[in-house]
Design brief:
This protein is of the alpha/beta class and 379 residues long. It has one domain (36-277, 294-377): Glycosidases (TIM Barrel, Alpha-Beta Barrel), CATH 3.20.20.80. Helices cover 38% and strands 14% of the residues. It is built from 14 helices and nine strands. It has helices at 3-15, 27-32, 36-39, 52-55, 60-69, 81-84, 94-105, 136-153, 178-183, 187-198, 214-229, 250-261, 307-326, 371-377; strands at residues 45-50, 72-75, 109-117, 160-165, 203-208, 236-239, 242-244, 266-275, 331-336. α8 packs parallel to α10 (187-198) and α13 (307-326) packs parallel to α14 (371-377). Residues 1-32 have low confidence and may be disordered. It binds ligand 9MR.
Length: 379
């Protein structure tokens, strides 16, 4: 670690609320340190997903990091349809309200996640009282009501919405979800139209994982072009960026950034994390239905991450941030999918109960050693 790194890291430690044991005066260190949101201020937003412990203010250590490091937030779970409208017409807004208030209090760019997603959608959405699939008309009206009720509530307060999430398969075809079964591909323009009606000023995004897979990228480009040709407003494409140490490829990721930007929409990294754990193919991406049984050999770092793996993780993060910086004219936001390693969904997918290290802050909300490198890159 060089001197500058030491200074920045010590400063960062103070900035994120760690106790400094060096015995040196701390004022200068804080002054010379930059936080993520400061370092990237003229590049793109740097965001994080918030869970309930953070939204409700229980997790004080995490919240300090959020306030100091990030200038954009997205709700990890509390706005998903099964949570926000668990029964037809019964909306639960308490957590989402708190999430938006937290963002406003801190002057953050606030992202709503998500309006239409096949996963975590409550059963009632698609069936009548006899359990049979509803008609096109009924599903359209349920979507309209769901989207209008939520988007109108936060009109002018939520700046961008993940309107449709994960509608395209890795092979580029439409996912055969309930929305697709009943409405065909029309459910996508309908969702965007309803969101635009409810808040004409809000930015509207399509969001998906494994967007570096060429066939999937092409499918998303086709979908976006079609929406644009049909006069449907779409402002951005979200690349989730759930990576591992050996996937996705930087070259393919770069092609995706370029192809998406060529559509004249904002490109955003919406859910970044990098798993260090071995993955049993085909468990890359974020196909929640693909799970595997626990096995010790797939959980090698229970007692801590060895230095060489930490370095490998750091190098991967630096390569991706380098790429995002190279395309900063196209990229409007880079959001991490969680604050500290202990909060990450990766500890439980595709195998439950593992110990992963996919984020920028560790289980005690202390910065990983390579955070300084990410800060320096932006200089
Ligand atoms: O991180 C989220 C996890 O806590 C939830 O259990 C899961 C199901 O709602 O969703 C996770 O977040 C997903 C996101 O909403 C959409 N893209 C993939 C993310 C990881 O699965």
């Amino acid at each position: 670690m060089n001197v500058l790194q030491t200074i920045i890291l010590s400063g960062l430690a103070v900035a994120v609320g760690m106790s400094c044991t060096s015995g040196q005066p701390q004022g200068e260190q804080v002054d010379s340190a930059k936080t993520l949101k400061e370092a990237y201020a003229d590049k793109f937003y740097v965001g994080t997903a918030l869970d309930l412990g953070q939204i409700k203010g229980h997790n004080v250590a995490a919240l300090e990091v959020v306030q100091q490091q990030f200038n954009s937030i997205v709700a990890e779970n509390c706005m998903k349809s099964e949570n926000i409208q668990p029964q037809e017409g019964v909306f639960f807004f308490d957590d989402a309200d708190k999430f938006v208030e937290l963002g406003e209090k801190n002057g953050m760019h606030i992202v709503g996640h998500n309006l239409i997603w096949h996963s975590q959608a409550p059963d009632w959405f698609f069936v009548d009282k006899h359990g049979n699939d509803v008609s096109r008309e009924v599903l359209t009206e349920r979507m309209r009501n769901h989207i209008h009720t939520i988007v109108s509530r936060y009109k002018g307060r939520i700046h961008g919405w993940d309107v449709v999430n994960e509608a395209i398969l890795d092979n580029g075809e439409y996912r055969p979800s309930k929305f697709y079964e009943i409405l065909g591909e029309d459910f996508i323009p309908l969702a965007f139209k309803f969101a635009h009606q409810a808040d004409p000023e809000a930015e509207l995004y399509y969001n998906d994982y494994s967007t570096a897979i060429p066939a999937k990228r092409a499918g998303i480009v086709r979908l976006t072009k079609k929406l644009q040709d049909d006069g449907i407003q779409i402002d951005g494409l979200g690349m989730q960026e759930h990576h591992g140490l050996s996937h996705a490829s930087l070259e393919e990721t770069e092609k995706t950034i370029i192809d998406f930007a060529n559509l004249r929409v904002k490109v955003m990294v919406t859910e970044m994390d990098i798993s260090v754990l071995p993955h049993a193919s085909p468990h890359v991406g974020a196909e929640l239905a693909d799970t595997a049984a626990y096995n010790e050999s797939f959980d090698p770092y229970k007692e801590g991450l060895p230095a060489d793996k930490m370095n490998e993780l750091g190098a991967r993060y630096v390569s991706f941030f380098n790429l995002y910086l190279k395309h900063q004219d196209k990229i409007s936001r880079v959001t991490l999918w969680g604050v500290g390693d202990g909060d990450s969904w990766k500890n439980n997918w595709p195998i439950e109960g593992r110990t992963d290290y996919p984020l920028l802050f560790d289980r005690h909300y202390q910065p990983k050693p390579f955070l300084v490198d990410i800060l320096e890159l932006a200089n």
